[in-house]
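Re-run with default settings, no changes from the original entry. Doing this only to confirm the output is reproducible before filing.
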Amino acid sequence: MNLNLYGYGPEHDRQWIMVDLGITFGDDTTPGIDIITPDPEFIASQGDRLLGLVLTHGHEDHIGAVPYLWPELDCPIYATPFTAALVTRKLEEAGILDAPLHIVPLGGHLSLGPFDIEFVSLTHSIPEPNALAIRTPTGTVLHSGDWKIDDEPLIGQTTDEKRLAELGDEGILAIICDSTNALTDGLSGSEGSVRQNLVDLVQHMTGRVVITAFASNVARVATAAFVAQRTDRHLVLVGRSMHRIVAAARETGYLDDFPAVVDEREAGYLPPNKVLYLCTGSQGEPRAALARIAGGSHPNVVLEEGDSVIFSSRVIPGNEKSIFALQNDLVAQGIEIHTEKENDIHVSGHPCRDELTQMYQWVRPRISVPVHGEMRHLQAHGALAKDLQVPDVFVASNGTMIKLAPDEPEIIDHVPSGRLHLDGDILLPADDEILKERKRIGYSGFISVVLVVGKKGTLAARPVIETIGVPFEADEPLEHELEEVIDLLFQRDRYLKFHQGHSLEELVRRAVRKRARELTGKKPITVVRLVEMAG
């Protein structure tokens, strides 16, 4: 869920650029929420001082929030061709046709106010990852984006080591750098090694084969096609994201030799040993293709005992429960699973410690600001930078404003940096009362009471009580117990609504909620509605 801001100039006249605008995904702690974005409150308040949004690459955690937040920012967008192709599709799907999206060539330059920005080619798990060399009158900042060192990436360019070293010679004020694998020693590995390992694994399988991977990893998509050809199988793409990524890659000059694929509706007629499915859903996403296949709800793809599913991906922290549940479901059906834990069938797209060390040796920054990772990753990255003799290191939390130059670097402010939850089609602050109520309902349940009361405050009809998600074990329904509480309340005082400074609704609500807690141990959200009869 990346959103980075760089400002130049005095506070009253500071100009800004934004680098990346991504999303993260909801989990079981955010019921009803699939997508979470950064809250752009601070930069939106700067008006036309935001000169542009510059995108480093096309992963969802770097571009996914563009269609949701761009209308509030209303600024030009800059990206290299493949990333621009992905963003264009997102904007069109959102009905946004007027966003000024500018395509920057690989290795290109861009000038926005006091910022001169150079795109430097790196390698990652998606085509066209870029570092940004951001030049200002007071120094050059290198924003790494996501990266690794891979001499055999299969798709796209290799890391421009020569240019990085040249930038180091010119002088780098600060590096703002990926920390995702800062706890992992060694190197992240090469896509080239994954290809042969997958061929070796699949060639011994006799049933249907499913490879599930991140759709955005175009090199892995190309590898799946290569594996299918080498093992005499037909490739089948399953999942909208797979089709979208392949289309964008071919549109921008990648996957030119990609083979014809079999439609998933026709693949069922093929012998099991002649089909290889490439599916979305490696993280156990409930609506992705693999989860629907495992659950028997996919309209076109069925797996049986003796078939195999290969997870050519890593477990993203936080997704363990959903992934393991999916894998258990597959195993229970007699389907063999293979993961990167037992087989060398995945490599990370982020730099391990040896690669971080190499980057620092190339660019030799005066300041290090670790980003992109949990706090434990940022701390490990910061400690490594200190070991590499970087003079100033800032391990900062979200919203921290760091002055890099002129004079000594220092933290000068903390600005709003919250989250927005996409609830249906509406963006709400993460602390919105609606979302809090939904969580409370999820934990404790809900009780609705409708009272029909006569003019003198007496019940004119039996209360209408409905409970949702409230546990109860007894001979009589919980609603009967709660109705007795209401009857007793009215027998005790026929004019309750005039007493104790509380409305009749509030007195009934308290009594019903108290009784529900006594009977169930829960404190359900309780709502009372009053219908008063005239005459």
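The first strand starts at residue 3 and ends at 8. The radius of gyration is 29 Å.
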